[in-house]
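FAQ

Q: What does a record look like?
A: Structure on top, sequence underneath. For example:
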């Protein structure tokens, strides 16, 4: 390979059909089709609806990506695809598409971990990842703290949510407040007009809870506390101050996330913190993380919001790293694994 590897990445783990193209550490294109509007009236992603939307969007999104990157299929050196974790039916669409393309083109296939890809995407934004980097991964399905010595094959979980993911909590609280799905961006926006007037609980941050769950998160108690508070206001015949509730809830979430992330970085002697996943698009999380990282002497890296939510660029970014580091490709028997463990950054050929 004379030039750096040209890798196409396919993402279908939830409701975004993403196709990205990366050359080495440079992002050429990030094409997205989302079925989010089709799920809004159900208040959450409906797997069958999402799967069918992926089937319909795959070819047009692929074509858009190739045109945008100004490359032909025949130019590609490899194809990477999210093979887990995620919704089984939606993952299968992406994996099948990637297998068909690699078989037809005679190029390697890399089945990659969605979570590691959320970390790797920052390479196309801010350059090579420091090794190690401490990653806070906050999305609709996951809230994890990861120690990452090498995003291609050494990802160590330090803690995770023991109940709801951070994004799930945003979505559920938005529903309580009568805001549309997905709720995160709406709460973010509403909170800018409000004040932090209510002291909502911070789960697993004190006493024995903290001892036992030093780097774990819990958001279900917070969600219930918000629902009870809102209900009490309604029963008392008062108008719910949506902006203030949004600001107070959001503050409780981002306070815990940033506090634990900074503590994990300090205790593990890691000087760089990276934040990824859909919730990393949150403006208050970005601001508070920057303040606290500055105060602790830790460097912070957060990709632009469009690269924080699910996309194909992140898959291509991790794929390009795997190619560059000479990791072995996946076999054509690569399964879609809805509960792929975070410790497996990619799934090499089992038979060899
Ligand atoms: O990473 P992502 O696109 O998909 C998953 O892998 O889950 O994350 C989606 C989640 C949703 O729960 C959404 O409400 C949340 O990210 N989100 C936000 C914001 N933008 C998206 N949460 C808080 N503030 C935002 N600005
Ligand atoms: Zn995600």
């Amino acid at each position: 390979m004379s030039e750096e590897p040209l890798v196409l990445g396919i993402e279908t783990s939830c409701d975004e059909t993403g196709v990205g193209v990366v050359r080495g550490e440079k992002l050429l294109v990030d094409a997205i089709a989302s079925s989010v509007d089709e799920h809004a009236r159900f208040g959450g992603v409906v797997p069958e609806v999402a799967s069918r939307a992926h089937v319909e969007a795959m070819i047009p999104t692929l074509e858009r990506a190739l045109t945008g990157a100004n490359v032909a299929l025949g130019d590609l050196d490899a194809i990477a695809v999210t093979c887990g974790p995620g919704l089984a039916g939606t993952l299968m669409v992406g994996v099948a598409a990637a297998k068909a393309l690699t078989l037809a083109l005679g190029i390697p296939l890399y089945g990659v971990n969605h979570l590691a890809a959320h970390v790797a995407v920052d390479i196309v934004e801010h350059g090579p990842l420091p090794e190690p980097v401490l990653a806070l991964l906050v999305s609709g399905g996951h809230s994890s703290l990861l120690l990452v010595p090498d995003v291609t094959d050494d990802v160590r979980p330090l803690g995770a949510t023991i109940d709801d993911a951070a994004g799930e909590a945003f979505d559920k609280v938005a529903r309580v407040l009568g805001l549309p799905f997905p709720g995160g961006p709406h709460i973010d926006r509403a909170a800018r007009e409000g004040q932090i007037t209510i002291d909502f609980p911070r789960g697993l941050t004190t006493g024995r809870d903290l001892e036992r769950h030093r780097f774990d998160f819990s958001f279900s108690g917070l969600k219930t506390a918000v629902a009870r508070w809102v209900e009490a206001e309604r029963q008392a015949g008062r108008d719910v101050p949506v902006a203030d509730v949004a600001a107070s809830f959001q503050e409780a979430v981002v306070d815990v996330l940033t506090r634990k992330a900074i503590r994990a970085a300090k205790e593990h002697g890691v000087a760089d913190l990276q934040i990824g996943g859909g919730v990393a698009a949150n403006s208050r999380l970005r601001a508070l993380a920057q303040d606290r990282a500055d105060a602790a002497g830790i460097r912070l890296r957060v990709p632009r919001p469009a690269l924080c939510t699910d996309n194909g660029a992140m898959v291509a970014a991790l794929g390009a790293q795997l190619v560059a580091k000479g990791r072995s490709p996946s076999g054509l028997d690569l399964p879609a694994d809805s509960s792929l463990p975070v410790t497996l950054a990619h799934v090499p050929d089992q038979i060899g």
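Q: Is there anything notable about this one?
A: The chain is about 45% helix and 20% strand.
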